[in-house]
Amino acid sequence: MSAFLAAAATLAEALAGLEGCWSGNLAYRDYRSDGMAEIPMRSCVEAADDGSYIADNSAYTDPGFLVYIHGVTQVVEDGAVVREAMFRDGGMDVREKTVDSFEETEDGFTLVLLHEGDDADAAADIKETLSVSGAVLIREKAVRPVGSDAAYDFRNRVSLTREDETQQSSTASGPADD
């Protein structure tokens, strides 16, 4: 068993292990130019004392303005479903995502979630893969038309590194300064 998961017998405990601040980049496919864009991002995660949920505050610089996203994630139905509420720009989005797989790795874990949602103003099947390896967190999102058997197409990737304690604060104050 990995050192990361030695104390994490459940998915909820593994997610609670993400507590702390992370910084790096958000890379995404820009549909207008059909090219790749990359912007700085910072996320701070706090776990509830009772382990029932994690909350994260993320910030990134979308060209021209700072974007804040606040989320709450809860594992339900004995680990078969992850419920997420995301707050951004005065709006709220609540999703239940099916746990397709959750596997330990040498020094972390990989979690695959499936759900329906929207992408570029069209209904989509969405596949999210969260991989944690030591102090590196990568979350990839891929999409395809709802009900399609086609391969998923890349949409975005968050690549973050855990900050040491001298860099951390209790909330995401904005992208890390380099």
Global shape: globular
Instruction: Report the radius of gyration as a whole number of Å.
Output: 16 Å
Going across the major beta sheet, what is the strand order?
1-2-3-4-5-6-7-8-9-10
**Count of helical stretches:** 1
Percentage of residues in strands: over 45%
Question: Helicity, in percent?
Answer: under 10%
Q: What is the N-to-C order of secondary-structure elements (H for helix, E for strand)?
A: HEEEEEEEEEE
Question: How would you describe what is shown here?
Answer:
There is one protein chain. The chain has 178 residues and is mostly beta strands. Helices cover 3% and strands 63% of the residues. The protein is built from one helix and ten strands; from the N terminus they run αββββββββββ. It has one helix at residues 11-16, and strands spanning 20-30, 35-47, 54-62, 65-76, 81-88, 91-105, 108-119, 122-133, 136-145, 153-162. Strands 1-2-3-4-5-6-7-8-9-10 form a ten-stranded antiparallel β-barrel. The longest helix is centred in the first third of the chain and has 6 residues, at 11-16. The N and C termini lie far apart (35 Å).
Spell out the key features of this protein.
178 residues; mainly beta; 10-stranded antiparallel beta barrel; 3% helix; globular
Write the layout of secondary structure elements.
Layout: H1 11-16, E1 20-30, E2 35-47, E3 54-62, E4 65-76, E5 81-88, E6 91-105, E7 108-119, E8 122-133, E9 136-145, E10 153-162
Antiparallel strand pairs: 1-2, 1-10, 2-3, 3-4, 4-5, 5-6, 6-7, 7-8, 8-9, 9-10
Concise structural overview:
The chain contains 1 helix and 10 strands, in the order αββββββββββ.
